[in-house]
Amino acid sequence: MMLSVGTFVFCGWLVVELFYVRRATGVYMKWKKKNRTANEGILFVENVVNDHGSIFRPVHQETDVGIDGHIELVDNETVTNKLVAVQVKSGESYVSSDGTRFSIRVDQEHIDYWCSYLVPVIMVCYSPSRELAAWTPISEYVRHQGYHERTPITQIDVPFHRKFDSKALNEDVAAFANAAVSRRVLIECVDHCLVGNAQQKFQALTILSGHPDSRDSRITAFVARRLLFDGDRSVADEAIRTLAYHVGRARWAWNPNNTDEQAVIRYASDLCRDLTAAECRVLIERIDDEWFGGPDAFGERVFDLLVCCEESHRVMEDIAVSHDLPMQRRIKALYMMYGCDDAELLDDRELADDPCLGDVYRTMYADELKGDAKTKPF
Known about the structure:
Distance between the termini: 108 Å
Radius of gyration: 33 Å
Shape: elongated
Largest sheet: 5 strands, mixed
Number of strands: 7
Strand content: 5-15%
Helix content: 40-55%
């Protein structure tokens, strides 16, 4: 369809008229102050990252749902493939009243999003007037608050002294990223524990029991229970230490208000409830030449496992009264029958005349029975 000359003229007039009306009324898209302040924080982070020699990749604001950018760490001009996500909060309104930290209000939805993000997330807060930025790893902050029962979390506090600068990127942020990368090997460690050779099992279990993301987990306790009677002694001993660490926290050191820790202790204890009499006997035999006294003592670790199983007390008693077994084994069995409580056992002086246990008791406390208190021989 052909348009007339008059129609073209009218359309041209309309465009010009609308342009001048818009200028006259001042109807323009606005770049609000809060947007400018937020942008200052992102630019500051980008400058710090660039100065460090690493790579900052901003997330477009229209798709920003809790992440403002990603930092890919570079070490000596070599890209490390270690990625950290960043949430930036910029402005004086985030500075606490005492002027020592940033305080950021958060909701559970954002916390869940950050903690489940595929790469580790840090929060960077920026004060334009101070030209100061500070940071905190969000998942570590949430884990710390949860351990101390400071829940629900409605605020994240970031102290000024935890500065976000090149040094932080080079040290603490890099360490945080390294820990995240190393999580990828944890599944391989579980695999080696289940099907690897003795060396692979030992190395994998030591990693699982030492890594902060697996040390206190149920899967590590489960794997240790599977390896408790492995044919390789070094593997079995490491499994004893690892599983007893989970069980023994109820006796040695734990936070009674932390429900997550309680759940892991209960789970690990349940794993030991089905120990057979034969398995209990093997564990007791294992500590013939070991010592007691403190959580690091191997004898105490074995005891932590045995007390989870009702069958163990009968096995201890059978060993303690068996005159054909080594005296040191009988001593350990009697000691554990009394809950490794030396004072309680020593107070039971009638055991010295017991026909079945008297020889064990007199061996243990010969000096005490004479009134000469010396260190017990175990």
